[in-house]
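Input/output pair, single chain:
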Amino acid sequence: MRHIIAGENLALVFMRQVALQDDYTQFGVAECLVDNRAFYSNKGTMSMAPLYLLEGQDNLLQNRKTNLSQPFLKDITDRLGYTPTPEAIFYYIYAIFHSPTYRSRYAEFLKIDFPRVPLTRNDALFCQLAAYGEELVALHLMKSAKLEQKSKLPQFVEQEGKCIVEPGHPKYEVQSRSVIINKKGDRFTHVPEAVWNFYVGGYPVCAKWLKDRKGRTLSPQDIAHYQQIVVALGETITLMAAIDQAIPGFPIE
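Output:
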């Protein structure tokens, strides 16, 4: 964690062992401290791999090195003919981990060991996946410009429920595509069913975020953040499909 708290760093978040209920979704990105139980598993805690490591005890950003081994860098350099930036490699890895085919094909292995990164010799594919991964990272860190586009945001409709998340809620109404947070019917509208059912870290994000706030009155900031979460998940679904479409097949050549 000390490699993260100094700032200007990224970290992959993942798990070594997972008791899968359905698909493997235990991948994330962080630039701050992360609780080691943030992802669901009954087999262990999360792991964090920072992109940069701080050398020494002074936590100065200029005293840092990439957390990429020399054998790994040599391998990727031999394949591509050049050494990508550490950030490009990070984004490539993040995109691979968000390939639905990767997750399903290697599901049994992901249950029992650390995820492995397939490398490519195709520079165009590497660059395309790195671009997709960079978009995903921006979305998951809530920094993407797409989160500010009002046309993409779901609406919040208050119906005398005082914005309180009541017990037994949230509930999803398929016909109206609404997430209802109380008996009075306060709701977020225009939430796609695929987004409502989308899991990260073994949890359904849209439901869990609100359940964790049971009994709480949502502030305007809470409402705005939830609206952005919905957009981020929708864009993630689109990018995951694009990643799969870009990869000719597994094993990657």
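Residues 148-237 form one domain. The CA atoms of residues 128 and 211 lie 37 Å apart.
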